[in-house]
């Protein structure tokens, strides 16, 4: 065997071994985030949100999905947003778009094995600089406070969040987005704690 042949055979074997051990990312759980990312959508924004990324699917098309949580003031209220490339997914969001659009859906949200909750949603096209994925459609909805408490609880870390939104087109498949709750929920807790604690305590009656 010539020297050139030996080198070529060794290189081929090395490439083959590397190919065999490369991991594949076929689901949201394979790319589990370590923690929530805390950021402001715009440089001068007074709103701070926490987000994680996942995967959205519709009619065999896939795209990035972003789950975003924010706590608004005056009045204090938590909000959940789902951002994704509806154009890439071939999902028509027209019935959900604009300030005058009626909240539609319902969007079904499930965390792990917990019962599903439903939300009425509407939205708009968004190009927030921090999202770094171009123009996405942003579905927004008021958050259920108990849902947020479950997301920051230790026993739900690593659980799968599944969001399902029906299409306005008869017979069309729904849009589905999946996320994995990070092991570290500190960032999310910092964002939502004021919304979770904004209710006044009811004075106890004297015994």
Low-confidence stretches: 7-27, 200-207
Strand content: 25-35%
Q: Order of strands across the biggest sheet?
A: 2-3-4-7-6-5-8-9
Main sheet overview: 8 strands, antiparallel, barrel
Number of strands: 9
Summarize the structure.
It contains 4 helices and 9 strands, in the order H-E-E-E-E-H-E-E-E-H-E-E-H. By secondary structure, it is α+β, with helices and mostly antiparallel strands.
Descriptive account of the structure:
The structure is a single chain. By secondary structure, this protein is α+β, with helices and mostly antiparallel strands. It has one domain: Invasion associated locus B (IalB) protein (Immunoglobulin-like, Sandwich). 20% of the residues lie in helices and 34% in strands. The chain has four helices and nine strands. The chain has an eight-stranded antiparallel β-barrel with strand order 2-3-4-7-6-5-8-9. Helix 3 packs antiparallel against helix 4. The longest helix has 19 residues. The chain starts with a helix and ends in an 11-residue tail after the last helix. The relative contact order is 0.20. The C terminus is likely disordered.
Write the layout of secondary structure elements.
Elements: H1 3-21, E1 37-39, E2 49-58, E3 61-72, E4 77-84, H2 86-89, E5 104-111, E6 117-126, E7 136-142, H3 145-152, E8 160-165, E9 175-180, H4 186-196
Antiparallel strand pairs: 1-2, 2-3, 2-9, 3-4, 4-7, 5-6, 5-8, 6-7, 8-9
């Amino acid at each position: 065997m010539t020297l050139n042949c030996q080198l070529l055979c060794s290189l081929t074997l090395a490439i083959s071994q590397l190919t065999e051990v490369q991991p594949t990312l076929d689901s949201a759980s394979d790319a589990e985030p370590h923690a929530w990312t805390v950021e402001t959508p715009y440089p001068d924004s007074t709103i701070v949100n926490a987000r994680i990324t996942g995967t959205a699917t519709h009619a065999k098309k896939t795209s990035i999905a972003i789950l975003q949580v924010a706590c608004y003031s005056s009045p204090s209220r938590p909000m959940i947003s789902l951002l994704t490339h509806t154009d890439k997914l071939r999902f028509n969001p027209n019935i959900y778009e604009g300030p005058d659009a009626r909240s539609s859906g319902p969007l079904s949200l499930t965390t792990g094995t917990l019962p599903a909750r439903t939300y009425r949603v509407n939205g708009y096209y968004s190009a927030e600089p921090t999202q770094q994925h171009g123009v996405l459609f942003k579905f927004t909805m008021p958050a259920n406070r108990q849902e947020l408490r479950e997301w920051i609880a230790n026993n739900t870390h690593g659980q799968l969040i599944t969001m399902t939104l029906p299409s306005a087109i008869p017979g069309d498949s729904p849009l589905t987005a999946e996320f994995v709750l990070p092991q570290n929920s500190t960032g999310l807790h910092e964002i939502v704690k004021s919304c979770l604690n904004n209710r006044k305590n009811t004075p106890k009656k004297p015994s």
